[in-house]
Amino acid sequence: MTGSDRRIRVVALGGTIAMAPRNELGGVAPALDADELVAAVPDVPKLGRIETDAFAQVPGAHLRLVDLVRLSRRIEEAFKDGVDGVVVTQGTDTIEESGMALDLLLNTDRPVVVTGAMRHPTQSGADGPANLRNAILVAASEKARGLGVLVTMNDEIHAARFVRKAHASRPSAFTSASAGALGWTAEDRVRIPLRPVGRVFVDLPDVEELAAVALASVALGDDGRLLRLLPDLGYQGVVVAGFGVGHVPARMIEDLTAVAYQVPVVLASRTGAGETFSDTYGFPGSERDLLARGVIPAGALAPPQARVLLSLALSAGWPAARIAEAFDVLSG
Ligand code: ASP
């Protein structure tokens, strides 16, 4: 089967790629549906047998984890129906989270590629059509099978679990600083010289609500007064985005320990790249100290991805040891 024989479904969720100035508030807002997005790629019939699904039309900031669970079920149905690959277009603000959620929920080798745009369709140099075209090429490629969910932006191909939105507005915003991009597209070639190791699936039962997980970033001189409230506010887990390799201020330790007695606490790095340590620093509030208090290291997963994993794992009833192992496996 060549790329052009493959059935590729484009599922549109909204985001800048689909925005237009049709909004009573002024500015741009989601307006274009999946067919309109595909129509902006002139040679699309050459790339595959393209189908569309107008799943949602929201900014990335409005998506919720339950929407991604629903989307994963819809993608499973599409695969059962014989679709070869899926492209999801959405707001780039939350691609880190939605890519991670789909990666954990979809137990498939078929390509699922998430993309979006940093410039809206009426802006000079709009990147949406090129990003969508590349995503379709990747979703139709044999090379993209078995890699987990991918994110294509700016001609690069990233593993969803490592990708970061590292700039607020540029088309080059997406990086995989901890692991590197897996590949790229050039002309109509898909190049994927690197393959991630280790996959984790969450077999989520039908649950009414997903476990609420808070993301708390530490800051200079933090005293933990916010952190200590989280379990009473109904959070069933907490991701702490710590300094550097996983450190918190000494004033926070008591509260963090108390929280870790009540709910699982995952320790990530707020730096945007690299992994949490386990055995180097030995001062109060260091990674060694916090791990001894039962905190789970996020490894190379960034805080947004760590929060998605913790929420889905808790919703599936995983114990702390299994959650810790998942972070380790996904770190490579
Ligand atoms: N700037 C965002 C985007 O790139 C807005 C959003 O996430 O909806 O799509």
Fold and architecture overview:
This protein has 2 domains: 3-191, Rossmann fold (3-Layer(aba) Sandwich); 213-330, Rossmann fold. The protein is 26% helix and 20% strand. It has helices spanning 34-39, 65-80, 95-105, 128-139, 253-262, 287-292, 303-315, 320-330; strands at residues 7-14, 19-20, 29-30, 49-58, 85-89, 112-115, 150-153, 156-159, 164-165, 174-175, 183-186, 189-191, 213-217, 237-242, 265-269, 296-297. An 8-stranded mixed sheet has the order 4-1-5-6-7-8-11-12, with helices on both faces. It has a 4-stranded parallel sheet with strand order 13-14-15-16, sandwiched between helices. It has a two-stranded antiparallel sheet with strand order 2-3. A hairpin with a 2-residue loop joins strand 11 and strand 12. Helix 3 runs parallel beside helix 7. It is globular, with a radius of gyration of 20 Å. The relative contact order is 0.11. The structure holds aspartic acid (ASP). Aspartic acid binds at residues 15-16, 59-61, 91-93, 116-118.
The CATH superfamily of the largest domain is identified as L-asparaginase, N-terminal domain
Determine the mean pLDDT. 96
Percentage of helical residues? Answer: 25-40%
CATH architecture of the largest domain: 3-Layer(aba) Sandwich
Radius of gyration: 20 Å
Pfam family, one: Asparaginase_C
Domain Asparaginase/glutaminase C-terminal: 213-327
InterPro entries: AsnASE_II, Asp/glu_Ase-like_sf, Asparaginase/glutaminase-like, Asparaginase_C, L-asparaginase_C, L-asparaginase_N, L-asparaginase_N_sf
Keywords: Hydrolase
